[in-house]
Specification:
With 664 residues, this protein is an alpha+beta fold. Among the domains are: 101 residues, no CATH class; 161 residues, Galactose-binding domain-like (Jelly Rolls), CATH 2.60.120.260. It is built from 19 helices and 10 strands. Helix 3 packs antiparallel against helix 5. It is globular, with a radius of gyration of 26 Å.
Length: 664
């Protein structure tokens, strides 16, 4: 009795302290939001209230909000975002609700694993900050700055915060918790599907497969390339198959099939070989598992005829999966014609693989000594180390905000842009962007305050652009005087075609981009103004008095310096052999537990198969893509793996909700 009371008291204290810490941090971040601090604070209070009011809200809300609750291209934030604020708010409410609950004890193996994960992340964070020269200051640091270590590391620590909540939900009812998690994943997948449908309609067209355009949905982390959408789809698609397999009514089954087919279309239009591998192989494993060991919807005492019925039901659902795949293949058929972008990419797979192997060799050389090989160079330090090791293959350009010197007359806040590669002879670029309105039928007028110490050409563009690819554009070229310490104000009308009217069902987004055109050029920009016809000023924070608020860096066509393009390699470089072993142990234990649960074949644990396929998918996505440097998808990978570890073993009796338990 005393031990139970002591455990309950410690759970109460720990849960209350965690809830308070999450709430305080969420409000602090919200009140520093670059655009709408009070709206962000309201989001915090709403998230806390809903998570505290409804058990299991967090299981649906977090996966459902993950693919869209991030507005970095509008805010300029890179280290943290709106999803982080919402996540902390939901944690605060859920932990507050859990404060009066007791939890199942965590076994020793899990304690060791969780402690190793936490220590690995903490060591990597500290090493990353030391390697970057200290914590640094400012809300708008880049990937080469100290806070990039926090940007990369936060996904692990957020994932660890889900452990106690997962144990509480599973103790309440394991099957109930699994269904809510699956519902959240389906909500998120539906958002991604709608975003890609809009993106394709607005830009190349749904069935235009010849023009170079790869869908990115709302994963703004891909502004410097990467595999965010690849890893997300690999984790989410198995839950679409789950929805098809468990649907018992006609309309729910048709809805699940529609989502599955559209989701496979989304995979196709990423034009990523990585996605094809990471989605197709787990789907094949699920299909074989369903054929060999169908789900039994009753207990093991059912008659042979009942088993036959269960087998027929499973095989019928298997047929539905095959129909989904056939439908997706039919959607993909037009891509195999002459001039197909997909066909062109597949033809160049050999050259891409050669370049990837060279990139991996460079990445493997980044850890310089035995200490770095064991513990890594530090979280988030891959981009900076890669750039320093090989300037020719490093960053195509850089952006740095400079505060005015209060002791110097005439000084102002400004941004320095410089180009390591430039765009002369190459389409690759790196520049400063901001979302602007598209005004049809007029030419834009741009005004810049510039100065330069070397001959430099600055290009200002306004394009119909979602994230990576330009559509119609207007542009203007500026040549600031060389060697002058004073600012030169220049104004031009942009060249290029006027923008056409936007369709109401798929409007294109507008983006202004400032970049240096010539190799080795650099320029200081102290003022930006943009108008279109009779419109008012379109630029926010044009004098950079609020640092880089509203401004967002973006790259085009050259993305190697930011990504290891391998899950194993990024873990090995940034976290060392120790971090790689701990992460491997996490995934191995999670998959082993799910494999044992899948053998049961009960209705309550049918989700184990699909959760296992999801983890297998993200590991496959990590064969040729990075995962850990994309915080949202990295968090989801940790979340799913840690959730799987909290499920009861097949020898344990599955927990039931109190209202379902028999009264003795």
């Amino acid at each position: 009795m005393r031990l139970a009371l002591r455990f309950w008291s410690s759970s109460l204290v720990a849960s209350t302290a965690t809830a308070a810490a999450c709430l305080g941090l969420a409000l602090w971040l919200a009140l520093h939001h670059p655009i709408a601090p009070w709206a962000a604070a309201l989001l915090v209070l709403l998230g806390v209230a809903m998570a505290a009011r409804w058990r299991g809200f967090w299981l649906v809300a977090i996966p459902g909000a993950l693919p869209w609750l991030d507005f970095s291209p509008w805010t300029g934030w890179q280290v943290v975002g709106e999803f982080d604020i919402f996540l902390l708010a939901v944690f605060a409410g859920a932990y507050g609700r859990m404060a009066l609950s007791s939890m199942r004890a965590i076994d020793r193996t899990q304690w060791v694993l969780l402690l190793a994960l936490a220590l690995s992340g903490l060591i990597g964070l500290v090493r990353g900050l030391i390697d970057a020269g200290g914590l640094g200051a400012g809300w708008f640091q880049s990937y080469a700055d100290p806070l990039n270590s926090l940007r990369v590391g936060k996904s692990l620590f957020f994932g660890l915060l889900t452990v106690a909540l997962s144990r509480d939900a599973i103790a309440y009812d394991a099957a109930w918790a699994g269904r809510r998690l699956s519902a959240g994943m389906l909500l998120g997948l539906g958002v991604v599907a709608l975003a890609v449908l809009w993106e394709r309609l607005a830009y190349p067209g749904l069935f235009e497969f010849e023009r170079v355009y790869r869908a990115t949905a709302l994963f703004w982390e891909m502004h410097v390339g990467g595999a965010a959408i690849d890893a997300y789809l690999a984790m989410a698609l198995p839950f679409a198959w789950w929805a098809v397999s468990v649907a018992r009514r006609r309309w729910s089954r048709l809805g699940a099939m529609a989502l599955a087919v559209v989701s496979v279309y989304v995979c196709v239009v990423t034009f990523s070989r990585n996605v094809y591998l990471a989605v197709a192989l787990p789907a094949l494993v699920l299909a074989v598992a369903a054929w060999l060991r169908p789900v039994r919807w009753a207990d093991d005492r059912q008659s042979e005829s009942m088993v036959s019925v269960a087998r027929r039901k499973s095989q019928a659902r298997m047929a539905l999966w095959l129909w989904c795949l056939f439908a997706a293949a039919a959607l993909a058929v037009p891509q195999w014609g002459a001039g197909s972008f997909l066909l062109n990419r597949l033809e160049h797979t050999g050259k891409v693989m050669d370049a990837r192997l060279l990139h991996w060799q460079r990445a493997l050389s980044l850890p310089g000594n035995m200490t770095e090989q064991i513990w890594g160079v530090g979280l988030g330090r891959f981009p900076s180390r890669y750039d320093q090791a090989d300037r020719k293959a490093g960053f195509p350009g850089q952006i740095r905000w400079h505060a005015k010197n209060p002791n110097a007359q005439g000084e102002r806040d400004f941004v320095k842009l410089w180009a390591a590669h430039g765009r002369t002879g190459s389409p690759a670029s790196f520049g400063l962007t901001q979302r602007v309105a598209i005004v049809p039928g007029v030419r834009y007028q741009v005004e810049l305050d510039l100065r330069a110490s070397t001959p430099t050409i600055v290009v200002a563009e306004v394009c119909e652009r979602h994230l990576l690819y330009d559509w119609d554009c207007q542009y203007a070229l500026f040549r600031p005087p060389v060697g002058r310490s004073v600012w030169s104000r220049q104004s031009q009308a942009m060249q290029g075609p006027a923008f056409g009217p936007q369709p109401w069902y798929a409007p294109r987004l507008g983006m202004v981009m400032l970049t240096v055109l010539n190799v080795g050029g650099e320029a200081d920009i102290g003022h930006v103004a943009l108008t279109a016809g009779d419109s008012s000023e379109l630029i926010e924070n044009g004098d950079f008095q609020h640092q880089l608020a509203r401004w967002f860096p973006a790259a085009q066509y050259h993305y190697l310096p930011w990504h290891a393009d391998s899950l194993v390699l990024e873990l090995l470089v940034e976290r060392g052999w120790s971090g790689l072993i701990v992460f491997g142990a996490l995934m191995a234990l999670a998959l082993a537990r799910l494999a044992r649960l899948a053998q049961v074949g009960s209705e309550g644990m049918i989700m184990a198969r699909f959760l296992g396929a999801s983890l297998l998918g993200v590991l496959l996505a990590g064969v040729f893509g990075s995962v850990m440097d994309m915080p949202r998808v990295a968090f989801m990978a940790y979340f799913l793996a840690l959730f799987a570890l909290q499920l009861p073993t097949y020898r344990e009796k599955l927990p039931l909700r109190p209202d379902k338990q028999a009264i003795g």
